[in-house]
Design a protein that fits this description.
With 162 residues, the protein is of the alpha/beta class. The protein is built from 6 helices and 5 strands, in the order βαβαβαβαβαα. The structure holds adenosine-5'-triphosphate and magnesium ion (MG).
Amino acid sequence: MSTLAVYPGSFDPLTNGHVDIIERGARLFDRIVVAILVNAEKSPMFTTGERVEIARAVFHDHPNVEVDTFDGLLVNYMERRRANVIVRGLRAVSDFEYEMQMALMNRELAGTVETVFMMPAAQYSFISSRLIKEVFSLGGKVHGLVPDLVEQKLQERRSVRL
Ligand SMILES: Nc1ncnc2c1ncn2[C@@H]1O[C@H](COP(=O)(O)OP(=O)(O)OP(=O)(O)O)[C@@H](O)[C@H]1O
Ligand SMILES: [Mg+2]
């Protein structure tokens, strides 16, 4: 049996923390789908299409990493894809409570789906998309915290606004 893992999130934008988790998942599972949640936020920085394009470009050399979008209940998407593992990243205790609730709720909804948690490399454990957007919009450097392509897209956005 091959294991199809799904890594759901908003990825607005993709950070090196996400990349770290995806690379670990790609080594552990036969295939991992980066599943970008559509319409999670009312005013995202990047459109769903842009987020898909970025993730596909960053992982173009990883044949077992796929990028897709989903809407609605994750377990419905899992069933449609016949996927059996949900991958989530754990940065700190602060993630734990919410992640545990979600994992147990998803188990309630779909008993055969297992949630697997992974820790990122310590140097990425403080990164979140929200903080990246905040730091960047206030003029801070995000070099090394996001893929080069994301840094470039953020800079394009800034020069448009100026
Ligand atoms: N730096 C990181 N290291 C490990 N896991 C992470 C990291 N950033 C996010 N994750 C995990 O990735 C998954 C998807 O998260 P999400 O798309 O919400 O990213 P986020 O950075 O938390 O964004 P936001 O700040 O908008 O909530 C979650 O399981 C989250 O815990
Ligand atoms: Mg989050």
